Amino acid sequence: MIDQSRLRDDAYRRDVVERLWQEYSQEIRRHCFTWLGSGLAEEITQEVFVTAWQGLVKYRPDNPMRAWLYGIAKNKCQQAYRNRARRSTIAQTFLEEIRERSHAEDPRSPEESASEAGQIDQLHRSMTQLPDEERILLNLRYWRNLPMREIAEIVGKSVPTIRKRLGQAEQRLKEYMSS
Question: What residue ranges in 15-163 does DSSP mark as E strands?
């Protein structure tokens, strides 16, 4: 039984979460394992109990503690699964681009190569100045040639948000390229 009046006390909350860990951690770990496999199950299980410690003040005793913990675990597992899918998609995108560029064979004159190398260097410097999200959006749109809908799915945002942020990224890149 949890004493609701003492939940603001960090030491009491820690004791409660330790008891919850002892009673439910194996169950929660198995649940996370079914979602994510062994690689992330332990980490997500720990995140579940950290979140429980942080949210215990808001816990309502009319809900069973076990169900509350499983709800946290479900949310954490879903987020980890989405993040893994996004990272995999982004990594695959750049892997394909690297393969395409490394196998390209079209001879150029030394002048063309030097001019292109200078432009590529400028583009590279400009891209590294961009925030990560903008750099990813530009890569997905212009190097991967993905439609807005797919980009929105990959980064977990709406299409209008992607359009707006992509426009901002393009503007910022133009500014960096011209300086």
Answer: none
